[in-house]
Predict the structure.
Amino acid sequence: MNVAIGQKTRAEFLWRPQFSTGAEGVPPDWPPVLAALKQVVGNARSSVEELDSATLTNGTPYAGGIPALQGRMVKPEYRIARLTAHIYTHIGEILTARSTLGLDVMSFTGAMPATMA
């Protein structure tokens, strides 16, 4: 979203193989990870704040890994929905791991506990 919609540069640090699917899961050096995360979140915040109705109706070329979408134009709404689903997938993984460890998932920060029945 930062690159396609906000015309921002991607956080190259996070594109290293150690962060890709299938990586060994070795804990990284956290200060550079947190710095890259702050860059991504800051870029996303400014990209979202700059959105207007015209921007939301314009498509941009899809450059992701879903073969059926490659070469097609996708709207920012699609990208936002995919990003939201992606984030909730990771939240679900975290909650599952915490629950398996016997930790209280209701202590998870944010709005997630309110969505749980």
